[in-house]
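User: quick one - fold this with magnesium ion bound?
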Amino acid sequence: MTTAAFSSLPLLPELLQSVESLGYQQMTAIQQQSLPSMLAGKDVLAKAKTGSGKTAAFALALLSKIDPVSYHTQALVLCPTRELAEQVSKEIRALARFMANIKLLTLCGGTPIGHQINSLEQAPHIVVGTTGRVLDHLQRNTLALNKVKILVLDEADRMLDMGFEEDIHQIVKKTPNTRQSLLFSATYPDAIQAMSQRILQTPVVIEVETEH
Ligand code: ADP
Ligand code: MG
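Assistant: Sure. Structure tokens for the protein plus magnesium ion:
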């Protein structure tokens, strides 16, 4: 067994099974470097190029933290666009396929808000969404984030480019300070550094330059 084997990590058997069923034979570099810290509950700031497997990295960390019998939103993933939120939701669902009763809801614009409000009546364990629609639900009191244990900012550099910084801070303010925070980015401009200082607590910083 190499250190790149998913089975070298303290992962639930259900997650090892889904990783295998997806045909992921070994961890990519970013997964190998970030998962031990994430699974240990640390805040992580991870920079790695597109296509390096960042989604599965945070998805496995997030799914490890969900208590399926606690009917609250325990994980929040913010993405820059609807397309990305849908891709992330798909990957989390694929990795959760052997875990019983995990409810995930994708909250993006372009979908009637009434349907989302109905779906939120039973709080999903995981919310993946774009900042605008998540903020909209917070303002309507249709989404509660006070039980969030893990927050993920995916493609944080793109969210900053799109001008979502203040929206992100407004959303983060509604989550407990005791949460674990993970920030993923393909680039590392000064603005990411500044955002990380406001949101992350003594993060482990990981930078992967190689392909895999
Ligand atoms: P990023 O978010 O870093 O741009 P993605 O998370 O979208 O990259 O991953 C890119 C592709 O790699 C996806 O199709 C995903 O299913 C696949 N992938 C992720 N982890 C592994 C792995 N350990 N082994 C093989 N393929 C993987
Ligand atoms: Mg990605």
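One thing worth noting: Residues 35 and 57 are 6 Å apart (CA to CA).
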